[in-house]
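Q: What structure does this chain adopt?
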Amino acid sequence: MLAIACPGQGSQTPGFLNPWLELPGVADHLAALSEQAGVDLIRHGTVSDEDTIKDTAVAQPLIVAAGLVAGRVLLEERPLTAGTVVAGHSVGELTASAIAGALSEADAVAFVRVRANAMASAAAATPTGMSAVLGGDPDDVARVLAGVGLTAANANGGGQVVAAGTLEQLAALAAAPPAKARVIPLKVAGAFHTGHMSPAVMALETLRPTLAPSEPVGTLLSNFDGRPVSTGEANLDSLIAQVSRPVRWDLCMASMQSMGVTGMVELAPAGTLTGLAKRGMRGTAALAVKSPEDLEAARTFIVEHSRTPDLDPALTAEGLS
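A:
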Protein backbone atom coordinates (compact mmCIF):
# COMPACT_ATOMS: atom_id res chain seq x y z
CA MET A 1 0.00 0.00 0.00
CA LEU A 2 1.29 3.43 -0.98
CA ALA A 3 1.50 6.65 1.04
CA ILE A 4 2.35 10.08 -0.35
CA ALA A 5 3.85 12.48 2.20
CA CYS A 6 4.28 16.26 1.92
CA PRO A 7 6.88 18.05 4.09
CA GLY A 8 6.46 21.19 6.14
CA GLN A 9 8.32 24.40 6.91
CA GLY A 10 12.07 24.08 7.31
CA SER A 11 12.43 21.57 4.47
CA GLN A 12 13.29 24.28 1.90
CA THR A 13 16.90 24.98 0.88
CA PRO A 14 18.35 27.70 -1.38
CA GLY A 15 18.09 26.89 -5.07
CA PHE A 16 16.13 23.66 -4.64
CA LEU A 17 13.70 24.44 -7.49
CA ASN A 18 16.43 24.95 -10.12
CA PRO A 19 16.37 21.39 -11.54
CA TRP A 20 12.57 21.29 -11.62
CA LEU A 21 12.45 24.31 -13.93
CA GLU A 22 14.20 22.25 -16.60
CA LEU A 23 11.07 20.11 -16.99
CA PRO A 24 8.42 21.06 -19.60
CA GLY A 25 5.53 23.03 -18.14
CA VAL A 26 7.02 23.59 -14.69
CA ALA A 27 7.98 27.24 -15.25
CA ASP A 28 4.43 28.03 -16.40
CA HIS A 29 2.97 26.11 -13.47
CA LEU A 30 5.16 27.99 -10.98
CA ALA A 31 4.38 31.33 -12.64
CA ALA A 32 0.65 30.69 -12.22
CA LEU A 33 1.13 29.63 -8.60
CA SER A 34 3.25 32.75 -7.98
CA GLU A 35 0.47 34.99 -9.22
CA GLN A 36 -2.07 33.24 -7.00
CA ALA A 37 0.22 33.31 -3.94
CA GLY A 38 1.41 36.89 -4.44
CA VAL A 39 4.99 35.66 -4.12
CA ASP A 40 7.71 35.23 -6.79
CA LEU A 41 8.15 31.50 -6.24
CA ILE A 42 10.55 31.06 -9.13
CA ARG A 43 12.96 33.66 -7.74
CA HIS A 44 12.71 32.38 -4.19
CA GLY A 45 13.16 28.77 -5.29
CA THR A 46 16.22 29.50 -7.39
CA VAL A 47 18.27 32.52 -6.28
CA SER A 48 16.98 33.73 -2.89
CA ASP A 49 19.26 33.10 0.07
CA GLU A 50 18.57 31.05 3.17
CA ASP A 51 17.42 33.97 5.31
CA THR A 52 14.95 35.11 2.66
CA ILE A 53 13.29 31.73 2.23
CA LYS A 54 13.14 31.23 6.00
CA ASP A 55 10.60 34.07 6.19
CA THR A 56 7.25 32.43 6.93
CA ALA A 57 5.44 34.51 4.31
CA VAL A 58 7.84 33.11 1.68
CA ALA A 59 8.58 29.64 3.02
CA GLN A 60 5.03 28.34 3.28
CA PRO A 61 3.81 29.11 -0.26
CA LEU A 62 7.21 28.00 -1.61
CA ILE A 63 6.94 24.59 0.06
CA VAL A 64 3.33 24.04 -1.00
CA ALA A 65 4.12 25.08 -4.58
CA ALA A 66 7.09 22.72 -4.74
CA GLY A 67 4.93 19.81 -3.63
CA LEU A 68 2.21 20.68 -6.14
CA VAL A 69 4.76 20.84 -8.96
CA ALA A 70 6.40 17.55 -7.97
CA GLY A 71 3.02 15.89 -7.44
CA ARG A 72 1.71 16.93 -10.86
CA VAL A 73 4.82 15.66 -12.64
CA LEU A 74 4.97 12.43 -10.66
CA LEU A 75 1.29 11.54 -10.90
CA GLU A 76 0.47 12.75 -14.41
CA GLU A 77 0.81 9.24 -15.87
CA ARG A 78 -0.61 7.40 -12.86
CA PRO A 79 -3.23 9.50 -11.02
CA LEU A 80 -3.93 9.08 -7.34
CA THR A 81 -6.09 6.05 -6.54
CA ALA A 82 -8.61 5.39 -3.80
CA GLY A 83 -6.16 2.98 -2.19
CA THR A 84 -3.50 5.62 -1.53
CA VAL A 85 -2.83 7.27 1.84
CA VAL A 86 -1.94 10.98 1.69
CA ALA A 87 -0.54 13.01 4.58
CA GLY A 88 1.32 16.26 5.09
CA HIS A 89 3.34 17.69 7.96
CA SER A 90 2.15 21.12 9.14
CA VAL A 91 1.84 23.37 6.05
CA GLY A 92 2.40 20.20 4.03
CA GLU A 93 -1.16 19.26 4.96
CA LEU A 94 -2.27 21.86 2.41
CA THR A 95 -0.19 20.19 -0.27
CA ALA A 96 -1.63 16.83 0.75
CA SER A 97 -5.17 18.22 0.64
CA ALA A 98 -4.66 19.43 -2.94
CA ILE A 99 -2.99 16.16 -4.00
CA ALA A 100 -5.95 14.24 -2.54
CA GLY A 101 -8.51 16.56 -4.15
CA ALA A 102 -9.95 17.76 -0.83
CA LEU A 103 -9.09 21.30 -1.94
CA SER A 104 -8.52 22.58 -5.43
CA GLU A 105 -5.01 23.76 -6.19
CA ALA A 106 -6.28 27.36 -6.34
CA ASP A 107 -7.96 27.03 -2.91
CA ALA A 108 -4.84 25.46 -1.39
CA VAL A 109 -2.73 28.39 -2.64
CA ALA A 110 -5.31 30.94 -1.44
CA PHE A 111 -5.27 29.22 1.95
CA VAL A 112 -1.47 29.17 2.22
CA ARG A 113 -1.28 32.84 1.22
CA VAL A 114 -3.53 33.86 4.11
CA ARG A 115 -1.99 31.30 6.48
CA ALA A 116 1.58 32.39 5.79
CA ASN A 117 0.94 36.12 6.10
CA ALA A 118 -1.23 35.75 9.20
CA MET A 119 1.28 33.46 10.91
CA ALA A 120 4.13 35.82 10.02
CA SER A 121 2.17 38.71 11.55
CA ALA A 122 1.41 36.67 14.67
CA ALA A 123 5.06 35.70 14.98
CA ALA A 124 6.14 39.34 14.67
CA ALA A 125 3.90 40.33 17.58
CA THR A 126 6.07 38.47 20.09
CA PRO A 127 9.60 37.09 19.51
CA THR A 128 9.02 33.33 19.44
CA GLY A 129 10.60 30.25 17.90
CA MET A 130 10.98 26.48 17.97
CA SER A 131 13.67 23.97 18.96
CA ALA A 132 13.89 20.25 18.29
CA VAL A 133 14.40 18.05 21.33
CA LEU A 134 16.09 14.80 20.33
CA GLY A 135 16.15 11.83 22.69
CA GLY A 136 15.55 11.75 26.42
CA ASP A 137 12.83 10.04 28.37
CA PRO A 138 9.42 11.17 27.02
CA ASP A 139 8.02 11.88 30.48
CA ASP A 140 11.12 13.84 31.45
CA VAL A 141 10.98 15.83 28.21
CA ALA A 142 7.32 16.68 28.84
CA ARG A 143 8.11 17.71 32.42
CA VAL A 144 10.98 20.00 31.39
CA LEU A 145 8.97 21.66 28.61
CA ALA A 146 6.06 22.30 30.95
CA GLY A 147 8.44 23.65 33.56
CA VAL A 148 9.68 26.44 31.29
CA GLY A 149 6.26 27.09 29.73
CA LEU A 150 6.93 25.58 26.30
CA THR A 151 4.47 23.66 24.11
CA ALA A 152 5.29 20.34 22.45
CA ALA A 153 4.17 21.73 19.09
CA ASN A 154 5.32 18.79 16.95
CA ALA A 155 5.48 15.17 18.08
CA ASN A 156 7.49 13.72 15.22
CA GLY A 157 8.12 10.20 16.46
CA GLY A 158 11.45 8.45 16.74
CA GLY A 159 12.28 10.37 19.92
CA GLN A 160 11.88 13.83 18.35
CA VAL A 161 9.68 16.55 19.85
CA VAL A 162 9.64 20.18 18.72
CA ALA A 163 9.22 22.70 21.51
CA ALA A 164 7.70 26.11 20.78
CA GLY A 165 7.37 29.31 22.76
CA THR A 166 9.07 32.61 23.47
CA LEU A 167 12.78 33.06 22.87
CA GLU A 168 13.29 33.38 26.63
CA GLN A 169 11.57 30.05 27.21
CA LEU A 170 13.66 28.39 24.50
CA ALA A 171 16.83 29.84 26.02
CA ALA A 172 15.85 28.33 29.37
CA LEU A 173 15.38 24.94 27.69
CA ALA A 174 18.78 25.17 26.02
CA ALA A 175 20.41 26.06 29.34
CA ALA A 176 18.85 23.10 31.17
CA PRO A 177 17.78 20.42 28.65
CA PRO A 178 16.18 17.11 29.61
CA ALA A 179 18.60 14.38 30.59
CA LYS A 180 20.15 12.53 27.63
CA ALA A 181 18.50 14.92 25.13
CA ARG A 182 19.88 17.37 22.59
CA VAL A 183 18.21 20.71 21.88
CA ILE A 184 18.60 22.10 18.35
CA PRO A 185 17.18 25.54 17.42
CA LEU A 186 15.13 25.44 14.21
CA LYS A 187 15.18 27.89 11.32
CA VAL A 188 11.61 29.07 11.76
CA ALA A 189 10.41 32.50 12.76
CA GLY A 190 7.64 31.74 15.23
CA ALA A 191 6.01 29.41 17.76
CA PHE A 192 3.83 27.63 15.26
CA HIS A 193 1.06 25.28 16.38
CA THR A 194 0.65 27.05 19.72
CA GLY A 195 -1.70 29.65 21.15
CA HIS A 196 0.65 32.34 19.81
CA MET A 197 -0.90 31.63 16.38
CA SER A 198 -4.54 32.19 17.36
CA PRO A 199 -4.80 35.41 15.25
CA ALA A 200 -4.01 33.30 12.17
CA VAL A 201 -6.89 30.97 13.00
CA MET A 202 -9.26 33.94 12.93
CA ALA A 203 -7.89 35.08 9.56
CA LEU A 204 -8.48 31.62 8.10
CA GLU A 205 -12.01 31.49 9.48
CA THR A 206 -12.65 34.70 7.54
CA LEU A 207 -11.32 33.00 4.40
CA ARG A 208 -13.41 29.85 4.89
CA PRO A 209 -16.59 30.98 3.02
CA THR A 210 -14.59 31.51 -0.18
CA LEU A 211 -13.29 27.92 -0.26
CA ALA A 212 -14.98 24.86 -1.79
CA PRO A 213 -13.78 21.70 -0.02
CA SER A 214 -14.44 18.32 -1.63
CA GLU A 215 -14.44 14.66 -0.67
CA PRO A 216 -10.82 13.47 -0.65
CA VAL A 217 -9.62 10.76 -2.99
CA GLY A 218 -7.89 8.03 -1.05
CA THR A 219 -7.24 8.27 2.68
CA LEU A 220 -6.25 11.76 3.85
CA LEU A 221 -4.80 11.86 7.35
CA SER A 222 -5.15 14.71 9.84
CA ASN A 223 -2.21 16.11 11.82
CA PHE A 224 -4.53 16.41 14.81
CA ASP A 225 -4.82 12.72 15.63
CA GLY A 226 -3.33 10.87 12.67
CA ARG A 227 -6.73 9.56 11.62
CA PRO A 228 -8.52 9.93 8.27
CA VAL A 229 -10.76 12.90 7.67
CA SER A 230 -14.20 11.80 6.56
CA THR A 231 -15.23 14.78 4.39
CA GLY A 232 -13.84 17.87 2.72
CA GLU A 233 -15.45 20.06 5.37
CA ALA A 234 -13.89 17.99 8.17
CA ASN A 235 -10.52 18.38 6.48
CA LEU A 236 -10.99 22.15 6.25
CA ASP A 237 -11.89 22.27 9.95
CA SER A 238 -8.67 20.40 10.71
CA LEU A 239 -6.53 22.62 8.48
CA ILE A 240 -7.75 25.79 10.19
CA ALA A 241 -7.45 24.47 13.74
CA GLN A 242 -4.02 22.95 12.98
CA VAL A 243 -2.40 26.40 12.92
CA SER A 244 -2.66 26.75 16.71
CA ARG A 245 -2.64 23.14 17.90
CA PRO A 246 0.16 20.55 17.96
CA VAL A 247 1.09 18.45 14.93
CA ARG A 248 1.02 14.72 15.70
CA TRP A 249 3.12 13.30 12.88
CA ASP A 250 3.92 10.36 15.15
CA LEU A 251 0.24 9.39 15.01
CA CYS A 252 0.15 9.84 11.23
CA MET A 253 3.04 7.40 10.91
CA ALA A 254 1.36 4.97 13.32
CA SER A 255 -1.82 5.08 11.23
CA MET A 256 0.11 4.41 8.03
CA GLN A 257 1.65 1.34 9.59
CA SER A 258 -1.68 0.14 10.97
CA MET A 259 -3.27 0.53 7.55
CA GLY A 260 -0.61 -1.62 5.97
CA VAL A 261 1.42 1.04 4.14
CA THR A 262 4.48 -0.65 2.65
CA GLY A 263 6.03 2.35 0.91
CA MET A 264 6.02 6.13 1.44
CA VAL A 265 6.97 8.66 -1.26
CA GLU A 266 7.88 12.12 0.00
CA LEU A 267 7.33 15.01 -2.42
CA ALA A 268 9.75 17.91 -2.81
CA PRO A 269 11.34 19.55 -0.92
CA ALA A 270 11.90 16.02 0.36
CA GLY A 271 14.12 14.40 2.95
CA THR A 272 12.72 15.35 6.35
CA LEU A 273 9.78 12.92 6.46
CA THR A 274 11.72 10.02 4.96
CA GLY A 275 14.27 10.60 7.70
CA LEU A 276 11.54 10.43 10.35
CA ALA A 277 10.12 7.29 8.72
CA LYS A 278 13.44 5.48 9.10
CA ARG A 279 13.06 5.79 12.86
CA GLY A 280 9.27 5.86 13.28
CA MET A 281 8.14 3.45 10.54
CA ARG A 282 10.75 0.72 10.70
CA GLY A 283 10.27 -1.86 7.98
CA THR A 284 8.43 0.58 5.69
CA ALA A 285 10.24 1.59 2.51
CA ALA A 286 10.60 5.33 1.97
CA LEU A 287 11.72 7.34 -1.06
CA ALA A 288 12.43 11.07 -1.20
CA VAL A 289 11.68 12.92 -4.45
CA LYS A 290 14.27 15.67 -4.05
CA SER A 291 14.83 16.42 -7.73
CA PRO A 292 13.65 15.25 -11.16
CA GLU A 293 16.44 12.67 -11.07
CA ASP A 294 14.33 10.78 -8.52
CA LEU A 295 11.18 10.63 -10.65
CA GLU A 296 11.89 7.40 -12.52
CA ALA A 297 12.66 5.54 -9.30
CA ALA A 298 9.56 7.08 -7.69
CA ARG A 299 7.28 5.92 -10.50
CA THR A 300 8.60 2.37 -10.16
CA PHE A 301 8.20 2.61 -6.38
CA ILE A 302 4.56 3.72 -6.77
CA VAL A 303 3.74 0.75 -8.98
CA GLU A 304 5.37 -1.64 -6.51
CA HIS A 305 3.43 -0.31 -3.54
CA SER A 306 0.05 0.55 -5.10
CA ARG A 307 -2.09 -2.17 -3.64
CA THR A 308 -4.83 -2.00 -1.02
CA PRO A 309 -4.77 -4.46 1.90
CA ASP A 310 -7.80 -5.28 4.01
CA LEU A 311 -8.06 -2.26 6.30
CA ASP A 312 -9.16 -2.17 9.90
CA PRO A 313 -12.61 -0.50 9.70
CA ALA A 314 -11.72 1.59 12.74
CA LEU A 315 -8.98 3.25 10.70
CA THR A 316 -11.04 4.14 7.65
CA ALA A 317 -12.95 7.34 7.08
CA GLU A 318 -16.18 5.36 7.05
CA GLY A 319 -15.30 3.90 10.41
CA LEU A 320 -15.04 7.40 11.85
CA SER A 321 -18.41 8.62 10.64
